[in-house]
Structure formats: C-alpha cells, structure tokens
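User: Hey, quick favor. My workstation is busy. Could you predict this chain's structure for me?
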Amino acid sequence: MLCGLGIFLPSKVVTNQDLSLFMETTDEWISTRTGIRERRVVERGTSTGDLAVEAGARALKSAGGEPADLVILATTTPDHPCPATAPAVAHRLGLLEAPAWDLSAVCSGFLYGLSTAAAFIAAGTARRVLLIGADTFSTIMAPADRATRPIFGDGAGAVVLRAGTAGEPGALGPTLLGSDGSLRELITVEAGGSREPLGPGDPDRPGRYFTMRGKSVFRRAVARMTEAAAEVRARAGWAPEDVDCLIAHQANRRILEAVAERLALPMERCALNLDRVGNTAAASVPLAMADAAASGQLEPGHRVLTTAYGGGVTWGAAALTWPSITPELT
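Assistant: No problem, here it is.
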C-alpha cells in the first residue's frame, strides 16, 4: 500500500513566451495543441539524481521517516550511462546497502515500478519500497526543436509502499503492463547506446537528441491508455461512476480528454497539472498525484485509476485507494 508521497521540481520556470524568443513558436501555438503553458527546467549542473534525492527524502518523511529497504528509480535520463543512478540516490538518502536499481520504461516507468515494488512486497523480499520517478528531459532535447522542446519539463516524484490489507486506504489494486517493441522508433534517442555509439567527433550528431512521431504516438497512446485503464477498472470491479479520480500520464491535454471521454469520466474527475509542469515522463504520475492531493481533488478513500504510455513502446495502468497523504508541493 502507498503510505508516503514526495515531489521536487526545479526552481527555474520556462514559459511558452520564453521559448518563443529562440524558436519559431508562440504561446497560443503551444497551449492550444498541448495544454502546456510553462514547465520547470534544471540549471546546468543539476542532475536527475539530485531531483530524485529531494523527492525521495520528502516521500520518506511523509511516510513517517522509517527507512526503505529497497529503492527503484524510474528514469530515462540517468546521471551516467554507467553505473545506475539509483544506488547513489539510496546512498545519499542514508539507505546504506539497500538494493537499488534503475528502471527504464520512459513515461510508463512509474507504473512499471509500482507493479515491481508491489511484487517484491508480496513476495516478502522487501518490507518498504521507495519508488522514485525522475527525469530531466531538457538535457536530451534539441535546443530549438519545436516538436519536442515545448512539451517536456523536468521533475521528480516519489512514493513509499509497504505491506497492507486490501481494505486499507492506500491499498494497491489490480495492475496491468504491456509493451510492443515493433514500435520502438516512435519515441527514441537513436545514438549513445551500443547499437549507435557516440564518438569524440559526434557531439552534435542529430541522433543524440530525443525524437517522437507525435501523430502516431497520440493515436496509440489514447488507445492503449484507455484499454489498459478499462481492463484494470473491470478487474477492480469498478463502474465508471465508481472512479473518483483518473490520474493519467500528463502528456498532452487532448490525449487526456480523449482517454477520459472513452472511459466515460468527466474532466473534473481527472488530475491535470501539465499546464504548469509539462510532460515530466516518469515523474508525471506521482507529480499529478501530489497536485491532486494538495488541491483537495483527492481525499482518503477515493478510488483512483492511473494509466500511462511511453517509449518502447510501453503502457500500463493500476487501481488504488487513496490514503491520507498531503504532500508538500515545490
């Protein structure tokens, strides 16, 4: 069950107007197509691990301060290609010798991590798990790419999970995960791995930057997020009117509206914070959770449906009952 929640956002705010100063775009063009008006961006020298440590510390404090005995960091933008970032995050949090690893499922990473954490707890291998979703996509964006740069922001969100009973607030219900590697080219950073290594003469090679085929992603994201959420809702035994809040990956307002409509949910029952933070990849779902809880949209006992779609391609959904948590927003 979920018993702690913490988030951390960089202090630097980049508005649509700021972007229009160095790329061919306008606030109206961005906001009407995505619903995003501003996003947070790390300063040079601040890493994904730095954000993860701050969010993780707040989640542990929210859960009463008891240490976790396992750490999972969902991210696409680790501090280094090697080693993984999670062990360093665990060490900085004082979770000495706790098993820790990175999980890469792009924007579905938090839900993949949620299912993984629940499995370790159910197996008795872990007692308390710190799950962090953190990304700094600004570090892998082409500086003036109008197709991607306005969409993404940086941030981190973390939760603590522990063993519990099905009737408790915070209880995790059914989960569903999926992937389709035949569509891997829809969302990708082509260069920098073992298939296309970057050499000393390739610092500005186009393949080093994130690319996304927006129209194809839009269509498939709506379909997969809806299907996964509907299946999880059915497994939980919930009718549409039983869902108090839909927390979908904050990719694009039009995607969220389409998913909500197909699930027969009014938008007032959908968490929405992308206008202020953009698409924060693996951090998206926990950041939206925190915003909904802090605003009063989420209350203890509420039935929550979550869903996400990301590169790989990957997708997932989960049901949970909301606990008594009021996170500190940054």
